[in-house]
Specification:
It is elongated, with a radius of gyration of 18 Å. α1 runs antiparallel to α4, α4 packs antiparallel against α6 and α6 runs antiparallel to α8. The protein contains 9 helices and no strands. With 193 residues, the chain is an all-alpha fold. The N and C termini lie far apart (39 Å). The longest helix has 37 residues. 74% of the residues lie in helices and 0% in strands. 37% of the residues are buried.
C-alpha cells in the first residue's frame, strides 16, 4: 500500500461518513434524562433500555417515529459500506507506514481497522434487529454494549498508534489529533452517558 492508496481510502471514508446525514435522523425525538448524548445515532448505539429507544425514535404515537426508524435502518445498511471503507483506510494507513518506515510490525496495527469493522457489523446486526421489532428489544440491548465498546476501543487504539506512527515519521501536526482518541476513550468508557 502507498500513501496514494491511503488517501483514496481516506477520501472514500470521508464521503461515506458524510452521506449518513441523507438518511439518519438529525435529532432525538426527546432528550434522554441525565444524558449528555444528543446525537440520535450515538444515542441508539449506547441505548440500554426501551426508554432510551423512545428518546431516539419517539413514543408509539409520535407521527415521526416510523420515519425515524426507516431512516435509521437505511443509514445502518449504508454503514456496512462505511465499515468496508474505514476498515480499509486504517489497514492502508498502517500498510503505507510499514512501507515508509521499513517496519512490518505496523501491519499488525492495521488489522485494528478490520477488527473494529467486524465489531461494528455485529453492532449493526443488533441495531437492525431492534428496529425490526421495537416491541421486544431487551435481548439485543443487553448484548449491544459489547460490540459498541469493542469498536470504539479498537478505533481509539488505532488512532493512538497512528499518532505514534506519524510522530516516528516526523509528521508532528497530524499526529496530535490522533493522540487524543486513546485518552478520550477512558472517561467515555467510565461514563458512556
Amino acid at each position: 500500500p502507498s500513501w496514494r492508496a491511503c488517501l483514496l481510502w481516506g477520501v472514500a471514508t470521508l464521503l461515506v461518513s458524510q452521506s449518513f446525514a441523507l438518511f439518519m435522523p438529525a435529532t432525538l425525538a426527546h432528550p434522554i434524562p441525565g444524558a449528555t448524548v444528543d446525537n440520535p445515532v450515538l444515542a441508539f448505539e449506547f441505548a440500554r433500555t426501551p426508554a432510551h429507544l423512545d428518546a431516539v425514535f419517539g413514543f408509539s404515537d409520535d407521527p415521526l417515529r416510523d420515519a425515524r426508524i426507516a431512516g435509521m435502518i437505511e443509514g445502518n445498511l449504508l454503514d456496512y459500506l462505511f465499515m468496508l471503507v474505514y476498515g480499509s483506510f486504517v489497514l492502508a494507513f498502517f500498510g503505507a507506514t510499514a512501507r515508509a518506515t521499513g517496519h512490518t510490525r505496523w501491519w499488525l496495527a492495521g488489522w485494528l481497522g478490520p477488527l473494529a469493522a467486524f465489531a461494528d457489523a455485529i453492532e449493526n446486526a443488533l441495531l437492525l434487529s431492534i428496529n425490526m421489532d421495537m416491541a421486544t428489544p431487551e435481548a439485543e440491548l443487553a448484548l449491544l454494549p459489547f460490540p459498541v465498546w469493542t469498536k470504539f476501543t479498537l478505533l481509539a487504539v488505532a488512532c493512538g498508534l497512528a499518532g505514534l506512527a506519524l510522530l516516528r515519521q516526523r509528521a508532528w501536526l497530524p499526529a496530535l489529533p490522533c493522540l487524543v482518541a486513546p485518552v478520550a476513550i477512558v472517561p467515555a468508557l467510565l461514563n458512556p452517558w
